[in-house]
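--- STAGE predict ---
source: upstream dedup step, 1 unique chain passed
mode: sequence only
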Amino acid sequence: MKISLIAALGRNKEIGANNDLMWHLPADMRFFKSSTLNHVIIMGRRNYDSIPERFRPFSDRTNMVITRDQNFVAPGCHVFTTLQDAIAQAKDLGETEAFVIGGAQIYDLALQTLPVDHLYLTHIDAEFPQADTFFPTWNESEWTKTLLSEHAADEKHAFSFKVYRYDRLGKSGE
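--- STAGE serialize ---
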């Protein structure tokens, strides 16, 4: 099973402020949906809480939430106290590619403890000084970078952005 991280980040690796996104990029949301559809998605509890209720759980995906709170209930989701337990369950379900979708603590934990195969990162061409949450640092020299798409700013997208897939050296892309 492949393990992938998927995120959108500003120029300074900003990913959120006040437990919310700082941008509205419909084309990037479509990329997120098409990439994760029919796969396991793994998120931290705060990330889960940040999703508007009408979208929870994400449809047509197996939603997994990581929390230290053993009594936490997330309707329609599998809840785990460790990232490793969620990964084991994804493997048991026959998953081919599990996506870690945030937030910062879960991304960092995944990069530190899991054999992550791919990073799908949307690089937004803007800075967000209000940000209080950032994508963790990773050693980019251990990855190959492939441009998947780019999108100019337009009437529906306040910022231009590029989507890249990073493949860990020694692992192949698709």
